[in-house]
Amino acid sequence: MAADSISLVLQCWACIEGPRRSAFVCKLEENHTSLNDMLGRLKNLVNDVKNKVEAAEVIRRMTRTEQVDGWLRRVEQKQGEAEDVLHQCSQRIANDCHCLGRYFPKNYFASYKLGRRVAQLLTEVDNLIKEGSSFFLSEVAYYRQIALSGEELPLPATIKGIDLMFDKMCKCIREDEAAGIIGLYGTGGVGKTTLLKKINNHFLLKTADNSDFDAVIWIVVSRELSTTQIRKKIGDQLGITRKDDTDQVAEATDIFRLLSRQKNKKFLLLLDDVWERVDLEEIGIPHPSTVTESNNKSKVIFTTRSEKVCGEMEAKKIFKVECLQDDEAWNLFEEKVGEDTLNCDPDIRQLARDVSDAEQQQIKDEVVVPPDEDYPNLIPIATFLATYGLGKEFPTSLFRSTKSLRVLGLSGFSFGKVKFPTEIVELAELEYLNLSRTNIKELPYELGKLRKLRYLNLYETRDLHVVSVEGIQKLLDLEYLNLFHSNFRDWEMDGRSRLMELFEALKHLTDFGVTISSDTCLQSWSNSYKLQKYTTGLCLENYKANSFRITTTTLEDMFLE
């Protein structure tokens, strides 16, 4: 009788609420079990899809598709939501009181709301399972295509003397298939970087007549940059980023696969300011020495100051960037100096031409000033070379009127009782300083103010006793430092050699002459490959050791005292 009454009530309720709504409540426990089972199936499916994706990414170095990546994100979100609903459902099933037996919960509307959400989740999870299953019939990853990378680089307003070389380079790049690696070498300041920038900008512009490369990559190497840093810069330009920077092999492999697997895709890698061999294989660059289908006529072009580096880089074509021709140099001189300056004195033009011819362009604008004259109205000139002769005393008053001096050659001059002419340290534009065979007694800490100095010659400074190593360390642009046959040889401090400290600070130093008088310093020198590599002159005083190791091939002068 009671069962008949319950059945009658439920039938009446079903008529009022409708069969679908009542099912949310009546089938809550059943749907709870179904949802829990479906979540288990979805979890297994996610693991299978992730395994397939990771195999493509790790082994084949591919990139997961946006569809797969979006599906995995939606699954993660839905799993969290479903687990929260299942937890609520379990609590309600366990704790809810029922009337009319187990058919009618006391808090009907809360159970109805929860039951409806469970039913919705069943449909959503089922759709995710169907979508995920389709990934086993299609690719979950793809090989990233090379997009045009790089950026236009600023060029000087005035460019002289590189048009002919630029045309030769472009012809070689386009027509010489065997020249996969091309080297540009020449002394500093002749325009190598400007030429490479012009090549970068030219091949970056894709037009109907110019579609040579799909990726143009510009890297400033310099002496400080390591292989790891070069690789990272290339990876950044190609859009390759790895969470683990320590996985260098994997990063190199990523770069290699991206650049070599693209059919009919070519890259142009431009390396500026190379000081020593760059291992392309270690970076991940496909070696373009031979024309094959894989590298597809890609090119690597670099600039360096050393022809030797061109050989070390296995360049198939080498171009030497020369100084400007006479007419080009004169036109540039006129542009830089300006008409007002040239016209202020009728002798300036002829003086500049005479000096240029006499020095054969080694020094572009030189003025020779007699030592007995005053200089109150001396025009600021970029370069000064003292040529008065050995042993004469130099008039230090000249420095007060030559603040823009860039080149100062004082070889053989006598400074009298002055330890060092302190006026020199105020010449902020100075790049070249030759004090060889002078009687200077001290090189002060203030010398470090000459931040633009690139050349410092102290050869045969027999009276030099005190040198501020800390001051020299501030000359960060210094390329040439010669202390060969100098009286200074105090390279030890607290039992350690300061040679390596000096060399580590001067990152651009490539020509070094030194006098060593202690076993500690000699040991430090012989144990450093890089220090030996850039030493061209070595004087050993009080040499007592039976032997020491020399691995350098650049040593030109060696003297034992």
TrEMBL record:
The keyword Repeat is assigned to this record: yes
Keywords, sorted A to Z: Plant defense, Repeat
Gene3D superfamilies in UniProt: P-loop containing nucleotide triphosphate hydrolases (3.40.50.300), Ribonuclease Inhibitor (3.80.10.10)
Domain of life of the organism encoding this protein: Eukaryota
Keyword hit for Methyltransferase: no
GO terms under biological process: defense response
GO MF terms held by the record: ADP binding
Domain AAA+ ATPase: 178-334
Pfam families with a match to the protein in the record: LRR_14, NB-ARC
Protein name listed in UniProt: Disease resistance protein RFL1-like
Species of provenance: Nelumbo nucifera
